[in-house]
Design brief:
The protein is an alpha+beta fold and 416 residues long. Among the domains are: 168 residues, f41 fragment of flagellin, N-terminal domain; 104 residues, no CATH class. It is 51% helix and 15% strand. The strands form five sheets. It has a five-stranded antiparallel β-sheet with strand order 6-14-9-10-11. Strands 7, 8, 12 and 13 form a four-stranded antiparallel β-sheet that branches. The chain has a two-stranded antiparallel ribbon with strand order 1-2. It starts with a helix and ends in an 8-residue tail after the last helix. The relative contact order is 0.16. Keywords: Bacterial flagellum, Cell projection, Cilium, Flagellum, Secreted.
Length: 416
Amino acid sequence: MRVSTTQMFRNGISTMQQNQQALSNTQLQLSTGKRILKPSDDPSGSVQSLQFRSAIQQTEQYQRNGGMAEQRLSLSETTLSAVGEGLHRVRELAIQGNNATQTDDTRKFIAGEIRQILDELMQLANTRDANGEFIYAGVTSLTQPFSTGSGGEVIYNGDDGQRQVQLSPVRQVAVGNSGQEVFMDIPTGNGVFTVHDSAGNTGTGVVDAGSVLDASAWDPDDYTLSFDFNSEGELVYQVTRLDTNGDVVVVVPESGDADWDEAPQFVAGQAIQFNGIELRVSGTPAVGDSFAVVPSQNQDMFSTFRQLAEALEAPVESDADRATLNNAVNRALQDLDNALGNVLDIRAGVGARLKAVESQRAINEDVLLQLKTTLSEVEDLDYAEAISRFNMQQTTLQAAQQTYVQVQRLSLFNFL
Protein backbone atom coordinates (compact mmCIF):
# COMPACT_ATOMS: atom_id res chain seq x y z
CA MET A 1 0.00 0.00 0.00
CA ARG A 2 1.33 3.37 -0.93
CA VAL A 3 1.69 5.85 1.91
CA SER A 4 2.25 9.46 0.92
CA THR A 5 4.12 12.04 2.91
CA THR A 6 0.93 14.15 3.16
CA GLN A 7 -0.97 11.24 4.66
CA MET A 8 1.72 10.69 7.26
CA PHE A 9 1.65 14.37 8.23
CA ARG A 10 -2.18 14.34 8.34
CA ASN A 11 -2.26 11.21 10.54
CA GLY A 12 0.29 12.67 12.91
CA ILE A 13 -1.62 15.94 13.27
CA SER A 14 -4.91 14.07 13.74
CA THR A 15 -3.42 11.90 16.46
CA MET A 16 -2.00 14.90 18.29
CA GLN A 17 -5.35 16.71 18.08
CA GLN A 18 -7.18 13.69 19.49
CA ASN A 19 -4.68 13.43 22.33
CA GLN A 20 -4.97 17.17 22.99
CA GLN A 21 -8.78 16.89 23.05
CA ALA A 22 -8.64 13.98 25.50
CA LEU A 23 -6.12 15.81 27.67
CA SER A 24 -8.24 19.00 27.62
CA ASN A 25 -11.36 17.00 28.58
CA THR A 26 -9.56 15.39 31.51
CA GLN A 27 -8.18 18.75 32.58
CA LEU A 28 -11.71 20.23 32.56
CA GLN A 29 -12.97 17.27 34.62
CA LEU A 30 -10.22 17.88 37.18
CA SER A 31 -11.03 21.58 37.38
CA THR A 32 -14.81 21.05 37.80
CA GLY A 33 -14.70 17.82 39.80
CA LYS A 34 -17.41 16.39 37.54
CA ARG A 35 -17.13 13.20 35.51
CA ILE A 36 -20.00 14.11 33.17
CA LEU A 37 -19.41 17.40 31.37
CA LYS A 38 -21.95 16.85 28.58
CA PRO A 39 -24.67 14.27 27.94
CA SER A 40 -22.55 12.42 25.40
CA ASP A 41 -19.98 11.62 28.11
CA ASP A 42 -22.52 9.26 29.74
CA PRO A 43 -26.10 9.37 28.36
CA SER A 44 -27.64 7.16 31.06
CA GLY A 45 -25.68 8.89 33.80
CA SER A 46 -26.83 12.29 32.49
CA VAL A 47 -30.48 11.22 32.70
CA GLN A 48 -29.97 9.94 36.25
CA SER A 49 -28.18 13.16 37.18
CA LEU A 50 -31.10 15.29 35.91
CA GLN A 51 -33.60 13.15 37.82
CA PHE A 52 -31.64 13.39 41.06
CA ARG A 53 -31.17 17.16 40.67
CA SER A 54 -34.92 17.58 40.15
CA ALA A 55 -35.66 15.49 43.25
CA ILE A 56 -33.15 17.53 45.26
CA GLN A 57 -34.69 20.83 44.15
CA GLN A 58 -38.17 19.55 45.00
CA THR A 59 -37.09 18.36 48.45
CA GLU A 60 -35.34 21.67 49.13
CA GLN A 61 -38.62 23.41 48.27
CA TYR A 62 -40.40 21.15 50.75
CA GLN A 63 -37.82 22.23 53.35
CA ARG A 64 -38.52 25.89 52.63
CA ASN A 65 -42.25 25.15 52.93
CA GLY A 66 -41.59 23.49 56.28
CA GLY A 67 -39.66 26.51 57.49
CA MET A 68 -42.53 28.81 56.55
CA ALA A 69 -45.06 26.47 58.19
CA GLU A 70 -42.97 26.27 61.36
CA GLN A 71 -42.72 30.05 61.56
CA ARG A 72 -46.46 30.56 61.06
CA LEU A 73 -47.47 27.81 63.50
CA SER A 74 -45.05 29.11 66.13
CA LEU A 75 -46.58 32.59 65.77
CA SER A 76 -50.05 31.09 66.12
CA GLU A 77 -49.01 29.16 69.23
CA THR A 78 -47.58 32.33 70.79
CA THR A 79 -50.73 34.28 69.94
CA LEU A 80 -53.00 31.60 71.37
CA SER A 81 -50.92 31.59 74.55
CA ALA A 82 -51.53 35.34 74.91
CA VAL A 83 -55.26 34.83 74.25
CA GLY A 84 -55.36 32.18 76.98
CA GLU A 85 -53.63 34.51 79.43
CA GLY A 86 -56.20 37.20 78.65
CA LEU A 87 -59.05 34.75 79.27
CA HIS A 88 -57.54 33.71 82.59
CA ARG A 89 -57.21 37.35 83.65
CA VAL A 90 -60.82 38.17 82.68
CA ARG A 91 -61.98 35.14 84.64
CA GLU A 92 -60.13 36.42 87.72
CA LEU A 93 -61.69 39.84 87.23
CA ALA A 94 -65.18 38.32 86.90
CA ILE A 95 -64.81 36.52 90.23
CA GLN A 96 -63.39 39.63 91.81
CA GLY A 97 -66.23 41.81 90.50
CA ASN A 98 -68.86 39.37 91.76
CA ASN A 99 -67.72 39.82 95.35
CA ALA A 100 -70.36 41.51 97.51
CA THR A 101 -67.73 43.84 98.99
CA GLN A 102 -67.27 45.61 95.66
CA THR A 103 -68.93 48.96 95.07
CA ASP A 104 -70.34 50.34 91.85
CA ASP A 105 -67.15 52.39 91.38
CA THR A 106 -64.75 49.48 91.92
CA ARG A 107 -66.78 47.29 89.58
CA LYS A 108 -66.51 49.98 86.91
CA PHE A 109 -62.73 49.94 87.30
CA ILE A 110 -62.78 46.16 86.87
CA ALA A 111 -65.00 46.52 83.81
CA GLY A 112 -62.54 49.06 82.42
CA GLU A 113 -59.70 46.53 82.64
CA ILE A 114 -61.88 43.94 80.92
CA ARG A 115 -62.49 46.37 78.07
CA GLN A 116 -58.72 46.93 77.80
CA ILE A 117 -58.22 43.17 77.51
CA LEU A 118 -61.00 43.14 74.90
CA ASP A 119 -59.01 45.65 72.83
CA GLU A 120 -55.91 43.48 73.22
CA LEU A 121 -57.94 40.44 72.11
CA MET A 122 -58.92 42.31 68.93
CA GLN A 123 -55.26 43.03 68.20
CA LEU A 124 -54.30 39.39 68.76
CA ALA A 125 -57.15 38.23 66.51
CA ASN A 126 -55.77 40.49 63.74
CA THR A 127 -52.17 39.26 64.09
CA ARG A 128 -50.03 39.33 60.94
CA ASP A 129 -47.10 37.08 60.06
CA ALA A 130 -43.72 38.18 58.66
CA ASN A 131 -45.24 38.41 55.16
CA GLY A 132 -47.96 40.79 56.34
CA GLU A 133 -50.69 38.15 56.06
CA PHE A 134 -53.39 37.76 58.73
CA ILE A 135 -52.98 34.38 60.39
CA TYR A 136 -56.65 34.07 61.45
CA ALA A 137 -58.32 35.13 58.18
CA GLY A 138 -58.57 31.63 56.73
CA VAL A 139 -57.61 31.42 53.06
CA THR A 140 -58.29 35.14 52.47
CA SER A 141 -55.14 36.03 54.39
CA LEU A 142 -54.84 39.57 52.99
CA THR A 143 -58.24 40.57 54.40
CA GLN A 144 -58.36 41.87 57.97
CA PRO A 145 -60.42 39.19 59.69
CA PHE A 146 -62.02 41.15 62.55
CA SER A 147 -63.64 44.56 62.64
CA THR A 148 -66.07 46.36 64.93
CA GLY A 149 -69.64 47.02 63.81
CA SER A 150 -71.70 50.11 64.48
CA GLY A 151 -73.29 48.50 67.55
CA GLY A 152 -69.96 47.51 69.09
CA GLU A 153 -70.28 43.91 67.89
CA VAL A 154 -67.26 42.20 66.35
CA ILE A 155 -67.62 41.06 62.73
CA TYR A 156 -65.58 38.27 61.18
CA ASN A 157 -64.59 39.07 57.59
CA GLY A 158 -62.50 35.96 56.84
CA ASP A 159 -63.55 32.48 55.81
CA ASP A 160 -63.51 29.00 57.32
CA GLY A 161 -60.68 27.67 55.14
CA GLN A 162 -57.25 26.46 56.21
CA ARG A 163 -54.11 26.98 54.17
CA GLN A 164 -52.27 23.74 53.47
CA VAL A 165 -48.51 23.52 52.92
CA GLN A 166 -46.86 20.60 51.13
CA LEU A 167 -44.07 19.05 53.23
CA SER A 168 -43.43 16.01 51.06
CA PRO A 169 -44.96 14.38 47.98
CA VAL A 170 -47.56 12.70 50.20
CA ARG A 171 -47.83 14.98 53.26
CA GLN A 172 -49.55 18.30 53.85
CA VAL A 173 -50.06 20.32 57.01
CA ALA A 174 -52.48 23.12 57.85
CA VAL A 175 -50.54 26.25 58.81
CA GLY A 176 -53.31 27.94 60.77
CA ASN A 177 -56.86 27.97 62.09
CA SER A 178 -59.62 30.25 60.93
CA GLY A 179 -60.73 33.07 63.18
CA GLN A 180 -64.23 31.59 63.09
CA GLU A 181 -62.94 28.44 64.78
CA VAL A 182 -60.71 30.20 67.31
CA PHE A 183 -62.72 33.25 68.39
CA MET A 184 -66.30 32.96 67.16
CA ASP A 185 -67.67 29.43 67.50
CA ILE A 186 -67.62 29.15 71.30
CA PRO A 187 -70.57 27.17 72.75
CA THR A 188 -72.57 28.87 75.48
CA GLY A 189 -73.65 27.30 78.76
CA ASN A 190 -72.54 23.74 79.36
CA GLY A 191 -72.33 23.00 75.64
CA VAL A 192 -75.75 21.30 75.51
CA PHE A 193 -78.03 23.95 76.96
CA THR A 194 -77.73 27.33 78.60
CA VAL A 195 -79.80 28.96 81.34
CA HIS A 196 -80.30 32.68 81.85
CA ASP A 197 -82.55 34.82 83.97
CA SER A 198 -85.29 37.01 82.55
CA ALA A 199 -84.74 40.76 82.49
CA GLY A 200 -87.83 41.46 84.62
CA ASN A 201 -86.94 39.20 87.58
CA THR A 202 -87.41 40.86 90.98
CA GLY A 203 -86.34 38.03 93.29
CA THR A 204 -82.92 36.82 94.38
CA GLY A 205 -82.86 33.57 92.43
CA VAL A 206 -79.46 32.64 90.96
CA VAL A 207 -79.24 29.68 88.57
CA ASP A 208 -76.23 27.48 87.84
CA ALA A 209 -75.07 26.21 84.44
CA GLY A 210 -76.88 22.89 84.85
CA SER A 211 -75.74 19.49 83.68
CA VAL A 212 -76.87 16.63 81.45
CA LEU A 213 -77.98 13.43 83.19
CA ASP A 214 -79.16 11.49 80.15
CA ALA A 215 -78.26 12.84 76.72
CA SER A 216 -80.70 10.50 75.00
CA ALA A 217 -83.62 11.97 76.98
CA TRP A 218 -82.73 15.57 76.20
CA ASP A 219 -85.16 17.19 73.76
CA PRO A 220 -83.65 20.47 72.50
CA ASP A 221 -86.27 23.17 72.80
CA ASP A 222 -86.88 26.54 74.44
CA TYR A 223 -88.08 25.90 77.98
CA THR A 224 -89.21 28.36 80.63
CA LEU A 225 -88.79 27.77 84.36
CA SER A 226 -91.30 29.98 86.19
CA PHE A 227 -92.39 30.46 89.82
CA ASP A 228 -95.65 31.19 91.68
CA PHE A 229 -97.48 30.40 94.90
CA ASN A 230 -99.91 27.54 95.22
CA SER A 231 -103.13 27.80 97.16
CA GLU A 232 -101.27 27.02 100.41
CA GLY A 233 -98.86 29.91 99.93
CA GLU A 234 -95.90 27.68 99.02
CA LEU A 235 -93.46 28.76 96.34
CA VAL A 236 -93.68 26.24 93.50
CA TYR A 237 -92.33 26.04 89.97
CA GLN A 238 -93.31 24.85 86.53
CA VAL A 239 -91.32 24.10 83.38
CA THR A 240 -93.14 24.88 80.14
CA ARG A 241 -92.50 25.16 76.43
CA LEU A 242 -94.49 26.22 73.37
CA ASP A 243 -95.70 23.72 70.77
CA THR A 244 -95.74 24.36 67.04
CA ASN A 245 -99.05 26.18 67.36
CA GLY A 246 -97.73 28.52 70.04
CA ASP A 247 -99.72 26.83 72.82
CA VAL A 248 -98.11 26.31 76.24
CA VAL A 249 -97.12 22.73 77.05
CA VAL A 250 -96.37 21.88 80.70
CA VAL A 251 -93.25 19.70 81.11
CA VAL A 252 -93.02 19.87 84.91
CA PRO A 253 -95.03 18.55 86.62
CA GLU A 254 -94.93 15.40 84.50
CA SER A 255 -98.70 15.17 84.60
CA GLY A 256 -98.78 18.19 82.28
CA ASP A 257 -101.30 19.90 84.59
CA ALA A 258 -101.02 23.68 84.48
CA ASP A 259 -102.63 24.02 87.93
CA TRP A 260 -100.07 25.56 90.30
CA ASP A 261 -101.42 23.35 93.12
CA GLU A 262 -100.00 20.37 91.19
CA ALA A 263 -96.58 21.99 90.71
CA PRO A 264 -93.61 20.78 92.83
CA GLN A 265 -92.47 22.91 95.71
CA PHE A 266 -89.35 24.98 95.20
CA VAL A 267 -86.43 24.34 97.57
CA ALA A 268 -83.38 26.57 97.15
CA GLY A 269 -80.40 24.59 95.87
CA GLN A 270 -82.42 21.44 95.16
CA ALA A 271 -82.08 19.90 91.71
CA ILE A 272 -84.81 20.62 89.18
CA GLN A 273 -84.84 17.76 86.69
CA PHE A 274 -86.61 17.23 83.37
CA ASN A 275 -85.89 15.67 79.98
CA GLY A 276 -82.54 14.23 81.07
CA ILE A 277 -81.07 17.45 82.50
CA GLU A 278 -80.92 19.14 85.87
CA LEU A 279 -80.26 22.62 87.18
CA ARG A 280 -80.26 24.30 90.57
CA VAL A 281 -81.53 27.69 91.68
CA SER A 282 -80.25 29.29 94.86
CA GLY A 283 -81.82 32.28 96.61
CA THR A 284 -85.52 33.02 96.52
CA PRO A 285 -87.21 33.77 93.20
CA ALA A 286 -90.17 36.11 93.32
CA VAL A 287 -93.61 35.28 91.96
CA GLY A 288 -93.49 35.86 88.20
CA ASP A 289 -89.74 35.36 87.96
CA SER A 290 -88.54 33.00 85.24
CA PHE A 291 -85.44 31.46 83.73
CA ALA A 292 -84.99 30.44 80.11
CA VAL A 293 -83.48 27.01 79.39
CA VAL A 294 -82.50 26.91 75.72
CA PRO A 295 -80.17 24.81 73.53
CA SER A 296 -76.57 25.96 73.56
CA GLN A 297 -75.61 28.38 70.80
CA ASN A 298 -72.25 29.69 69.59
CA GLN A 299 -71.04 33.01 70.90
CA ASP A 300 -67.80 34.86 70.17
CA MET A 301 -65.27 35.69 72.88
CA PHE A 302 -65.66 39.41 72.21
CA SER A 303 -69.37 39.32 73.11
CA THR A 304 -68.59 37.42 76.31
CA PHE A 305 -66.09 40.11 77.35
CA ARG A 306 -68.42 42.96 76.41
CA GLN A 307 -71.47 41.48 78.16
CA LEU A 308 -69.44 40.84 81.32
CA ALA A 309 -68.15 44.43 81.32
CA GLU A 310 -71.68 45.77 80.84
CA ALA A 311 -72.98 43.63 83.73
CA LEU A 312 -70.24 44.93 86.03
CA GLU A 313 -70.91 48.53 85.00
CA ALA A 314 -74.63 48.29 85.86
CA PRO A 315 -75.44 49.79 89.31
CA VAL A 316 -76.41 47.38 92.10
CA GLU A 317 -79.07 49.03 94.25
CA SER A 318 -81.12 46.07 95.50
CA ASP A 319 -80.95 42.35 96.19
CA ALA A 320 -82.60 41.76 92.81
CA ASP A 321 -79.83 43.75 91.12
CA ARG A 322 -77.29 41.65 93.00
CA ALA A 323 -78.96 38.45 91.72
CA THR A 324 -78.94 39.82 88.17
CA LEU A 325 -75.20 40.50 88.49
CA ASN A 326 -74.57 37.04 89.94
CA ASN A 327 -76.44 35.37 87.10
CA ALA A 328 -74.56 37.41 84.49
CA VAL A 329 -71.18 36.60 86.03
CA ASN A 330 -72.06 32.91 86.34
CA ARG A 331 -72.93 32.78 82.64
CA ALA A 332 -69.75 34.65 81.76
CA LEU A 333 -67.61 32.27 83.82
CA GLN A 334 -69.09 29.29 82.01
CA ASP A 335 -68.57 30.93 78.63
CA LEU A 336 -65.00 31.88 79.57
CA ASP A 337 -64.30 28.28 80.57
CA ASN A 338 -65.66 27.14 77.22
CA ALA A 339 -63.44 29.65 75.41
CA LEU A 340 -60.40 28.52 77.41
CA GLY A 341 -61.14 24.91 76.56
CA ASN A 342 -61.45 25.80 72.89
CA VAL A 343 -58.13 27.68 72.91
CA LEU A 344 -56.39 24.79 74.67
CA ASP A 345 -57.77 22.31 72.12
CA ILE A 346 -56.57 24.46 69.23
CA ARG A 347 -53.15 24.96 70.86
CA ALA A 348 -52.85 21.20 71.20
CA GLY A 349 -53.60 20.86 67.49
CA VAL A 350 -51.05 23.54 66.62
CA GLY A 351 -48.46 21.79 68.78
CA ALA A 352 -49.14 18.48 67.05
CA ARG A 353 -48.72 20.12 63.64
CA LEU A 354 -45.47 21.77 64.75
CA LYS A 355 -44.20 18.36 65.80
CA ALA A 356 -45.24 16.93 62.44
CA VAL A 357 -43.37 19.71 60.61
CA GLU A 358 -40.22 19.12 62.67
CA SER A 359 -40.44 15.39 62.06
CA GLN A 360 -40.95 15.79 58.31
CA ARG A 361 -38.08 18.27 58.02
CA ALA A 362 -35.78 15.74 59.68
CA ILE A 363 -36.98 13.09 57.22
CA ASN A 364 -36.39 15.48 54.32
CA GLU A 365 -32.83 16.14 55.56
CA ASP A 366 -32.13 12.41 55.41
CA VAL A 367 -33.69 12.22 51.94
CA LEU A 368 -31.57 15.14 50.75
CA LEU A 369 -28.40 13.53 52.09
CA GLN A 370 -29.21 10.28 50.29
CA LEU A 371 -30.06 12.04 47.04
CA LYS A 372 -26.89 14.14 47.08
CA THR A 373 -24.80 11.09 47.93
CA THR A 374 -26.26 9.13 45.02
CA LEU A 375 -25.87 12.11 42.68
CA SER A 376 -22.23 12.38 43.71
CA GLU A 377 -21.70 8.72 42.88
CA VAL A 378 -23.22 9.26 39.43
CA GLU A 379 -21.51 12.47 38.28
CA ASP A 380 -18.57 13.24 40.58
CA LEU A 381 -15.03 12.57 39.41
CA ASP A 382 -12.68 9.90 40.78
CA TYR A 383 -9.67 12.16 41.23
CA ALA A 384 -7.13 9.34 41.60
CA GLU A 385 -8.25 7.73 38.35
CA ALA A 386 -8.48 11.08 36.55
CA ILE A 387 -4.97 12.17 37.61
CA SER A 388 -3.51 8.86 36.44
CA ARG A 389 -5.37 9.22 33.16
CA PHE A 390 -4.18 12.83 32.81
CA ASN A 391 -0.55 11.80 33.26
CA MET A 392 -0.94 9.00 30.74
CA GLN A 393 -2.63 11.28 28.23
CA GLN A 394 0.07 13.88 28.73
CA THR A 395 2.78 11.28 28.06
CA THR A 396 0.91 10.01 25.01
CA LEU A 397 0.62 13.54 23.64
CA GLN A 398 4.31 14.22 24.17
CA ALA A 399 5.20 10.94 22.41
CA ALA A 400 2.93 11.82 19.50
CA GLN A 401 4.50 15.27 19.23
CA GLN A 402 8.04 13.89 19.30
CA THR A 403 7.14 11.21 16.76
CA TYR A 404 5.66 13.83 14.46
CA VAL A 405 8.87 15.83 14.64
CA GLN A 406 10.88 12.77 13.67
CA VAL A 407 8.52 11.87 10.83
CA GLN A 408 8.62 15.44 9.62
CA ARG A 409 12.38 15.08 9.01
CA LEU A 410 11.88 12.07 6.72
CA SER A 411 12.12 13.67 3.27
CA LEU A 412 13.71 12.34 0.00
CA PHE A 413 15.30 15.70 -0.57
CA ASN A 414 17.56 15.11 2.41
CA PHE A 415 19.27 12.29 0.44
CA LEU A 416 19.70 13.99 -2.92
